[in-house]
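Schema walk-through. Below, the input block comes first and the output block second. Nothing else is stored per chain. Lengths vary across the set, and this one has 166 residues.
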Amino acid sequence: MHEAQGLNPSGEVSPPRPVFASAQALVAAAGHPLGCSDWLRITQERIDQFAAATGDHQWIHVDPQRAAAGPYGATIAHGYLTLSLANLFMPQILQVDMRMGLNYGSDRVRFPAPVRVGSRLRGNGKMLTVTPLGDGGVQCVIQVTVELEGSERPACVVDSLNRYYF
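--- output ---
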């Protein structure tokens, strides 16, 4: 394993991320933290696009006027929007130089805190387990904690199941 660094979409230097070039390197990472992604601001435009894609147009997500008088004082992101950002954050958290990778699913998804429009989120990863597969690949369980800036509680925690083939 070595580390890679690049530029984020804002042109700023991203935090270094571990680079794994083999199944053995992933196995050695089991139980260890992986690091954090860049921060991402949640805009009303992103929330509206998610609502359009999923058909979930509840007022708490898409009606800023009505939501201002609601329980959170503003619109909030859909829980599944927050969850889906784990896939955006994952390549910023770690790089796996493999032949093929698959998202195999998710376990233990939780949404401890709401995400108000304008909030900033980032992914924080930990390699929980790595299980060799019979066909030369490995299945990794990576816990992604979607951190909410300024909050002690995360916006989402998910155990992401990923399969990598070398």
